[in-house]
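Thanks for the sequence, V.! I ran WW domain-containing oxidoreductase right away. Repeating your input here for the record:
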Amino acid sequence: FLVKFDQKVRFICTNFSSKVPHATMFFVPSKLLIPAGVLTASVFALRRYKIRKWGRVTNTSSLKGKLFIITGANTGLGFETTKALTARQATTIMACRNLAKADEAIHKIRETTSEGELIPMELDLASFQSIRKFASQVNDKYPDLYCLVNNAGLAAQKPEFTQEGYEIHFGVNHLGQFLLVDLLKDNLKRNNSRVVVVSSRMHEIDASIDLE
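Predicted structure:
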C-alpha cells in the first residue's frame, strides 16, 4: 500500500500467505516507482493469463458413443467432470456411494444440458463386496468401457475403518481404487482404454501409517 510520496516512497507490504499475517515497512526511491510498477503490473497480467489457461479443456468435439466411469460423480470435481462430458454427448456411469445424491446430481446436470446419457450405479470404495458387485455389473452390461476416472476419495476427521477393517484412507484411497482397476482391467485392455487418477498433495504431509 502506498503511504507517502516525496523523495522516497513508503510501502507497507502485508504477507497473507503465512499463518500469522505480518507487516513489513521499507522505502523505495521515487525514481524506481514507475519501473517497479510496470514490472509488478506485467507479472500480475502474466499470472492472470496463465491462470485462465490452467486446467481448461479447449477440445469440444463430440464424445457420443464413448462410455466413461466416474467415481464420486455426484459432487466436487467428479460432478464437474460428469457435467462437462455429458455436454459433449458422452455416456457416463456415475459410480456413487449414495444413489439418492446421484439422482440429485443428475437433476442439476439436466438443468444445463439434455445431451449425453447418465447412468447412476452404486459403488462404495470402503467395501470390497460393493466394488466386486459394481465391477461385475459393468463388465456384464457395458463391455466397451472407454475411460475410468478414479475421482472418489476422502479425508476423514476421525479414525475410521473400511468394512474389511482397513484404515479408511488406506482402504478407500488406495486399496479400493486398486481393486476396482484390477477387476475392470480386461474390459479396459480390450478397448485400449485409459485410467485417469485424481490425486492430491496429502502424501506430502509428514505422517506415518500404523498398519497394525
